[in-house]
Amino acid sequence: MTERYANDHPESAAYAIILGFIVPLALGALLSDWRFALTYEIQWLNFADWLVAGSLVGGGIALAWALIRTTLAGRWSYRPAAIAVLLLAAFMVMQFVNALIHSKDNFATMPGGLILSIITTILAIAAAWTGLRTDRRGIVQ
User: Fold this and answer.
1) CA distance 40 to 90
2) By CB neighbour count within 10 A (0-12 exposed, 13-18 middle, 19+ buried), where does 19 fall?
3) How far apart are CA 29 and CA 23, in angstroms?
4) Which CA distances in Å does 62 have to 22, 75, 102, 137?
5) Contact yes or no for 2/118 (Cβ under 8 A)
6) Please, are residues 109 and 102 in contact by the beta-carbon 8 Å criterion?
7) How far apart are CA 64 and CA 42, in angstroms?
8) Which of 48, 78, 80, 99 is the most buried (most CB within 10 A)?
9) How many other C-beta atoms lie within 10 A of the C-beta of residue 1?
10) End-to-end Cα distance, the chain
11) pTM of the prediction?
12) Quick one: pLDDT at residue 126?
């Protein structure tokens, strides 16, 4: 049986793109929340709302992809793959709570929205780094 690295498969590139999708959106939401906290201009909060929604869509696709790949490859015992899935799940839960906080009245979103944006950005970076590290070093048979 020949072993190939996961990077030899075209779906690896698609997974990397999907994982890379959530980081700039979460970071953009964080920066928009930060700018809203400084200026209280409503448009920055609107930007953050849309960026949170976009990262929820990208995160949902990435989580479904990671669950399917990890289950089909039987890699749940491989700790980095399981950690990547758990980080994506934590990101999705926290980002959903962030979306609920952002749906409040404009001035009621602060400071909770900014704090949740910081947490979700850290989770997005950790999930993307772990997922890409797992994908690069993981062995598919």
Assistant:
1) 29
2) buried
3) 10
4) 9, 17, 22, 18
5) no
6) yes
7) 33
8) 48
9) 3
10) 7
11) 0.83
12) 93
Return d(Cα 41, Cα 110) in angstroms, integer.
12
Q: 4-140: which CATH architecture?
A: Up-down Bundle (1.20)
Rounded CA-CA distance 141/132 in Å is 18
pLDDT score at 136: 54
DSSP sequence for 22-90: HHHHHHHHHHHHHHHHHH--HHHHHHHHHHHHHHHHHHHHHHHHHHHHHHHHT-TTSHHHHHHHHHHHH
Rounded Cα gap, residues 127 and 140, in angstroms: 20
Angle value at C-alpha 112, between 108 and 116, nearest 5 degrees: 140
Residue of 108, 96, 97, 113 whose CA lies nearest to 35: 113
Angle subtended by helix axes 42-73 and 112-137, to nearest 10:
30
pLDDT in tens, the chain (141 residues): 444 444 445 557 778 888 888 999 999 999 999 999 999 899 999 999 999 999 999 999 999 988 888 888 776 777 777 898 999 999 999 999 999 998 888 778 888 889 999 999 999 999 988 888 765 554 443
Q: Dig out the tokens for 133 from the structure.
A: 């590290």
